[in-house]
Design brief:
The structure is a homodimer of 144-residue chains. Chain A is mainly alpha-helical. Chain A is built from nine helices and two strands. Chain A is 60% helix and 10% strand. In chain A, helix 8 crosses helix 9. At the A-B interface, helix 1, helix 2, helix 3 and helix 7 of A face helix 1, helix 2, helix 3 and helix 7 of B.
């Protein structure tokens, strides 16, 4: 096996091929932290173009990070929900938050949330996870 | 303040503007896990082009994630070292590893390392961190 082949099978490379771009991670941020689950909410993402947004949402559905369904509250719209494997991206996005809160001077991280993460990251993840399982109606069949 | 303005100041957005692309995160992976610190080693990254590699390394230096210095062992070459704030990206990259090891069936994560992360992530981070502080000669002036 060549070095390049080995590298391509690297779990980090395979992960990044799925979600390793700014727009995808911003969509996940909106889902995890802003309770956004609709196309017409995601379009408010930092100057995202609708064709990029469509592409990234489709990729997330294709890779079983999100599920796209008719919104029961508005049948002319679609709602995006996290899958169990999508939910497991929460720690990655939270680490990006924490780095940014510590290392980008101009950031506007909410102080109470930053302090909670700094004090006890696992508890913050657990609470957010439980909230998302409820609101997205995620069926967890096993825990890692 | 508009919603868009608020979002742009988001620590996740600001972080992703620095390192939110596949190539940058693969360079960091190589630094954290493969002890690569030289341009002619990074060129082995998954089919990266040399102009992208040059751009991403320059960006990491510009954003004080890496320092570029003459290599004392080979004065005709340059060596890249982590800064304290670069080192703090280790938990993010480790979370990406862990997600990929759990959720990409074709990945080749080393089993012993995966098991260690699964069992006790904070200890793995602590050990890797100490190793990198030594090998990159990182001057830590404060802990977060």
């Amino acid at each position: 096996m060549t070095d390049d082949k080995r590298r391509s099978d690297c779990p980090i490379n395979l992960s990044l091929e799925i979600f390793g771009d700014k727009w995808t991670l911003l969509i996940l941020r909106d889902i995890f932290f802003f309770e956004n689950r609709h196309f017409n909410k995601f379009v408010n993402l930092e100057n995202i173009s609708t064709n990029i947004l469509t592409d990234r949402l489709n990729r997330l559905v294709k890779h079983q990070i999100l599920i796209k369904e008719k919104d029961p509250k508005n049948l002319s719209a679609f709602v995006y929900s996290l899958t169990p494997r999508g939910l497991e991206l929460l720690p990655t996005v939270l680490e990006i938050f924490y780095w940014g809160a510590n290392h980008t001077p101009e950031n506007c991280a909410p102080n109470h949330f930053y302090k909670a993460v700094k004090k006890d990251k696992p508890t913050v993840i657990k609470r957010l996870r439980e909230k998302l399982i409820q609101s997205h109606n995620i069926k967890i069949t096993s825990t890692l």
